[in-house]
Amino acid sequence: MPPTQFGPRARTVAASALLGCAVAVIAVAVSQWLFGAELDPRDDALRRAAGIAFTDEARSTLFSVLPVALPALAAALAPDSRPGRVIGRLTRLVYFAYLVIGVLLASSAARYGFDGARQLAEEGQVFIGTRAAVERLVLDAVWLALAGIGLVFAGKARSRERTSTAEVVK
């Protein structure tokens, strides 16, 4: 039995679904970070970004394989037609949003982690020391670098596609 070839419409639908899933994961991470405050008055965006107690799921949701890999798969799967070019643009937009949100989340976590005096004054103990903050910042930078590579990959795939078309010879 020959391998199944997907047509442009099926590839467009699959790429759109992958891109939609990536957007959903990123939106959930933003919601967990900015709007996930519980009734505890000590729960704020910096503590959630740092991942201590309270509602600390935003970092693990955003810095995971799904929001980084799904847009790349969508760009690779998108057909060479007009819907594929739109998916390519949306892929770059998703990666750009991921990078902006990721930098803000990582810098918020680092800000909280590097401020041991504030933690000691507000919490009575230091939850995240300087070493742990640096380790998290390095890991966050790796995820952001992977997303940057995905952004470059998505841009290169579309520019290669445009230059590979045959020109009309008169």
From TrEMBL:
Residues that span the membrane, as ranges: 12-35, 62-81, 93-114, 134-154
Entry keyword set: Membrane, Transmembrane, Transmembrane helix
Superkingdom as given in the UniProt entry: Bacteria
Protein name: DUF2975 domain-containing protein
